[in-house]
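User: Let's play a game. I give you a shape written as tokens, and you guess the letters that built it. Ready? Here's round one.
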């Protein structure tokens, strides 16, 4: 297979986003690169409102990370993070030595409070046990054969992890088991999409969001009963509607499948009328469509769906959606802005003539 161009090889390579691990921030595994095409296709701006788009740890390192979930939080045993220690009321202030609290002062306080001391001892024992379990779990990193790694992860399922970590281990095992099945099938696949867009890397050991992107790219439309189906993956790994829409949108827009893009947002009311609805802002949808070279007709349709008038106008200006700009200035009865915009258009173009007709319409009561 010939080497793909760098810009075509994006989603299997790298990204600026770090994966969460159970280790310190400088752990070597957190430095490994991730799947860039998936990230770039559905990239969330750093200043995006968290109520609008859920954040995702793009943990695309090929070491089988299980930290894939949306709005990811660190494990309570992660080094350097805040521990979920039981609250103790009416604890007096502790003396400080340098920049840290005095351990002897803490001991005195705990000795005077039997309940607090028992909590603390139990907490330390629990943390010690969990660290040992996680050290055992991380042995999967040293197993190169995917079948043996899957079997090792399966053996970890019976270990007494904390509830959150047990869920992660279960998801990791299920994901790898699923990937092994998909990989074996797709390596032999002769469907047209595999010929038109040859796979550039194995799906094995990729994180869940990259796996979902792959599924939306190569297996979109499959029934939920198949392991490679996007809807099956979404249900199995409890992927939120927002994250699913972002991922599917990126994959289908990459393929220029505008019908599938529309189907992501089409909903019917009880009267049977179809309208577009999105769990993310339509301004984000427009940005993603533009990054994937959507035609102006498609961009214009989604710019028109932006609720905020200022965002709609700025989007229309940015992406040269002339009809939206003209109609917005018309609705604002802003004659001066129409005149300014007309001068940016080619003479005798349909948009130029449309503005001219509006300016000559004596029935419009302009505000300026």
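Assistant: Ready! My guess for every position:
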């Amino acid at each position: 297979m010939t080497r793909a161009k760098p810009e075509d090889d994006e989603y299997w390579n790298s990204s600026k986003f770090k994966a969460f691990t159970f280790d310190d921030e400088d752990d070597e595994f957190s430095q490994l690169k991730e799947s860039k095409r998936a990230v770039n296709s559905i990239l969330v701006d750093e200043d995006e409102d968290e109520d609008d788009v859920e954040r995702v740890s793009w943990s695309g390192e090929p070491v089988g990370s299980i930290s894939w979930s949306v709005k990811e939080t660190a494990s309570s045993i992660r080094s350097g993070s805040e521990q979920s220690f039981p609250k103790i009321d009416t604890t007096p202030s502790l003396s400080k030595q340098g920049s840290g609290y005095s351990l002897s002062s803490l001991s005195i306080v705990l000795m005077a409070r039997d309940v607090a001391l028992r909590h603390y001892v139990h907490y330390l024992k629990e943390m010690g046990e969990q660290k040992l379990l996680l050290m055992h779990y991380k042995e999967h990193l040293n197993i190169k054969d995917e079948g043996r790694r899957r079997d090792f992860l399966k053996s970890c399922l019976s270990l007494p992890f904390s509830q959150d970590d047990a869920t992660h281990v279960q998801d990791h095992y299920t994901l790898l088991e699923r990937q092994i099945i998909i990989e074996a099938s797709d390596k032999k696949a002769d469907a047209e999409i595999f010929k038109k867009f040859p796979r550039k890397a194995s799906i094995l050991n990729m994180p869940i969001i990259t796996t979902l992107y792959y599924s939306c790219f190569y297996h979109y439309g499959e029934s939920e009963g198949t392991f490679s189906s996007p809807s099956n993956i979404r249900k199995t790994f409890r992927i939120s509607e927002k994250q699913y829409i972002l991922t599917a949108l990126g994959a289908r827009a990459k393929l220029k499948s505008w019908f599938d893009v529309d189907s992501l947002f089409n909903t019917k009311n009880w009267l049977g009328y179809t309208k577009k609805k999105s769990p993310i802002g339509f301004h984000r949808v427009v940005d993603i469509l533009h990054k994937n070279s959507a035609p102006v007709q498609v961009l214009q349709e989604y710019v028109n769906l932006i609720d905020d008038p200022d965002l709609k106008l700025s989007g229309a200006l940015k992406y040269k959606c002339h009809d939206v700009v003209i109609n917005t200035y018309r609705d604002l009865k802003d004659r001066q802005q129409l005149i300014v915009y007309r001068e940016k258009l080619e003479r005798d173009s349909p948009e130029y003539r449309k503005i001219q007709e509006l300016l000559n319409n004596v029935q419009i009561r302009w505000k300026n």
